[in-house]
Design brief:
114 residues, 4 helices, neurogenesis, DNA-binding
């Protein structure tokens, strides 16, 4: 019976420690939230649920920004690779077309747009 009695006394203590951990983490989240989120309800005391909802909203926005940035970086890398593959130099295209179409000295001269 003493073990049962010990477990009965221990259960409220464990529950109290669990609640303290939860409250501590919620306070930490509150301190990490940006002032914009905290100013959404300036006159009312924030409930734990409010802090959790604001945290979820903040993390969702952060994830969307990260996804957008990742997508942008992939597009930029793809564009950079395409630019490296394509040769936009007027010298190379003129010399190539001049030498493949006609090998006469007049057509092999550099093309100038002016």
């Amino acid at each position: 019976m003493t073990l049962f009695f010990f477990l009965q006394l221990r259960k409220p203590l464990v529950e109290k420690l669990r609640r303290e951990r939860i409250n501590s983490c919620i306070e930490q989240l509150k301190s990490l939230l940006s002032p914009e989120f905290l100013s959404q309800q300036p006159d009312s005391k924030l409930e734990k649920a409010d802090i959790l909802e604001m945290t979820v909203c903040f993390l969702t926005q952060l994830q969307q920004q990260r996804n957008l940035l990742t997508h942008f970086n992939k597009l930029q890398t793809s564009c950079d690779e395409n630019l490296r593959e394509a040769d936009f130099s007027p010298l190379s295209s003129t010399v190539q077309t001049g030498t493949t179409k006609d090998t006469s000295p007049t057509n092999s001269a550099l093309w100038r747009p002016w």
